[in-house]
Amino acid sequence: MDSRQLRYFAAIYEQGTLSSAAETCRVAVSALSHHLANLEAEFGAPLFVRKPRGLQPTAAGERLYVHAKSILKAMSAAEKDIREAGTEISGEVSVGMAYSAVKAIAVDLARRVVADYPKVRLSLSESLSGSTLMHLMASEVDIALVYNPPADPRLKTQAVLEEQMVLVGTRAIIGDSDQPVRFADVLDLPMILLRQGISARALMDDTNLLKKLEGRAKLQMNSVHAIGASLAAGLGCTIGTKLFMYEHIESGLLHYRPIVEPELWRTLYVCEMADRPATYALEAVRSLILDLVRRSVVDGRWEARMVMP
Question: What confidence score (pLDDT) does residue 95 get?
């Protein structure tokens, strides 16, 4: 198997027919058919099921496409990186960010990239922390800002900052006081949380406490906007950071109270794939991200404490 076969396979997968893939790759249909047959013989499994209207990938074909996409992207980045070594930094960098990170640094990151690296094409995507991590592992982004990622040998992670979590809701639900509320008392309130799974890990570092919260949750959602609207409508309260619902808190629509016994914290990490070498453009963008995070904490825009050196 070589890179050409992988490119041909990816084209067949994406186009759905040999004729369309042949047109995309500018080769004869017979040549594509020959390469596909060789791949299937090499793997000892069919990669597509032949249908009247085209080709449908098998389970083996789906898995191979995930790997092929990652390999081809890495090869393209390596070629571009080596060719442009010593010249002005250029290339494409995709960054995935959890919601809070977007609010804190996304605009400043875009501004800095445009000003400092005009030949770098920056792609920013916002999603829940768990989805951001999945985008990274599927090669849809090159670097991700993720809360509490699971231990995984495929990931290269660097802890950046820690945020203290607070109770957020209307005064009618969480009380008018600014005094801290005990975690045991939080469990008696109508909670709105992220759905169980990898996204819920972003809520706090302590998984045992998280399980207790999930067991009492009145509503579970995988939408920041839906959670915000539900909080404003008085349907419940949630555990988050002040940055998470900053506008609603500043307007007075929502209130927050510190949580104690115990205090709750979550950790933000910069994540990359361990087997994916960084390009010069990615190194530059990573450096900008870390600098902007540090600046936002120092000037008080991001209420957190730094943990990176």
Answer: 96
The ranges of the chain annotated as CATH 3.40.190.290 are 87-308
**Angle of CA points 309, 95, 163, to nearest 5°:** 45
Q: How far apart are CA 220 and CA 173, in angstroms?
A: 18
Categorise residue 262: left if φ over 0, alpha if ψ from -120 to 50, beta otherwise: beta
The DSSP bridge partners found for residue 258 are 166
Chosen CATH of 3-82 out of 2.60.40.2470, 3.40.50.720, 1.10.10.10, 3.10.20.30:
1.10.10.10
Helix (H, G, I), strand (E, B) or coil at 249: helix
40 token code pair: 């299937």
- Partners of 51 in beta bridges: 54
Q: Give the model confidence (pLDDT) of 45-66 as tens digits.
A: 999 998 888 899 999 999 999 8
pLDDT in tens, 154-174: 999 999 999 999 999 999 999
HEC letters along 206-222: CHHHHHHHHHHEEEEEC
For residue 163, the Cα-to-chain-centroid distance in whole angstroms is 18
Rounded distance between C-alpha atoms, residue 251 and residue 232, angstroms: 11
